[in-house]
Amino acid sequence: MTGLYDIGAIALTLLPPERGHQAALWGLSHGLGPSERADRHPSLAQTLWGRSFTNPVAISAGFDKNAVAISGARRLGAGFAEVGGITPRAQPGNPRPRLFRLTADRAAINRLGFNNHGAEAIARRIADYRAGGEDPWPLGVNLAANSDSSDPANDFEQLVDTFAPLADFLTIDISCPNSANGLVFLSPGPLEDLLGRLTALRDGKGLASPPALLVKIAPDIEDEALDVLLDIIVAAGIDGITVCNTTTARPDTLVSPDRTQRGGLSGKPLFARSTEMLHHVYQVTGGKVPLIGVGGISDGADAYAKIRAGASLVQLYTALVYEGPGLVARIQNELAALLAADGFATLQDAVGSEHRSSQVSTKITHRMNPKAPPP
Ligand SMILES: Cc1cc2nc3c(=O)[nH]c(=O)nc-3n(C[C@H](O)[C@H](O)[C@H](O)COP(=O)(O)O)c2cc1C
Prior knowledge:
By secondary structure, this protein is of the alpha/beta class. The chain has one domain (about 35-370): Aldolase class I (TIM Barrel), CATH 3.20.20.70. It has helices spanning about 5-15, 15-30, 70-75, 120-130, 150-165, 190-205, 225-235, 270-285, 300-310, 320-325, 325-340, 345-350, 360-370, and strands spanning about 45-50, 50-55, 55-60, 80-85, 100, 105-110, 140-145, 170-175, 210-215, 240-245, 265, 290-295, 310-315. Helix 6 links the parallel strand 8 and strand 9 (about 210-215). The structure holds flavin mononucleotide.
């Protein structure tokens, strides 16, 4: 049955993409949208980084860049939030148009370039939200360097300094294809230096409950180069890895007129690559580092596939545009049913479970390494 909010969502898809997004955020920040519980399925609850997550589903970074709709996202039934990407100084981002719907492909291409209100204004907003007295709910902040910064590592230091007291986790975004400084830390030397500086800064602040530090990686890296970065990330003691950001690749399957736009592709066509990468990261890190699986999730089965591949938490963005705001709660319900159907008492039992079945892991090894003998 088509509900009021689905009708609203359909209406939003008729607006130009960026106006539609602004209207959705305005609605959420003014109390419109569904009102769902995040804790309706006890089997989905877990503790990560010393924080309670009532369910593993959230909207990913980029949706609420300026932290204007934290309570609204919570009312959708999300188990946690991630606001940002935030740069130290406010910046306008790239010239418009810079966000494109690929409707027939259930995808989007964006080259927004970190348009945001800057650290000071957004930190004030998050502090106000915290002071509002809502029950504790894990809140992540996604951090990025200004595109015109001459010292991007210093930008990240300023951001960790500002947001560490306000966040449950901080995501170091080293994987944005749309900003001049978006990819500079995908090289081993700069990454090792950056992570050393940021973990030391976080640890030196003497916070009672310091935030977890996560790194968000890009899907456009060859496995060998990725493994070098993963070694550095693990050695630095990073608490989690988000797999992954948008891709600059353009699969042959795309049919929408805007498929050749420059920028990062997200949505359904990213699902296979991002899930394959998740499998790989889980295997290489031995399941010891909690992972956030993101890329192309549009229903409970997709979210479940990410969890079985190794994700402890999942995030989505593009599918919201096509499915409407009820999607977050729907995924929560479908996930709980899928866990029960497979006999998993808790979410944690299912995390990485695909790697514990020898038959499936042979298949995964084959898929990751086309030169391996077929199973
Ligand atoms: C319009 C838009 C803006 C985004 N901005 C950010 C951002 O600021 N920081 C970030 O880490 N990821 C950003 N992302 C990437 C998403 O968080 C997510 O990793 C990606 O879209 C894949 O998920 P999806 O297929 O469910 O959309 C953005 C994505 C979109 C579509």
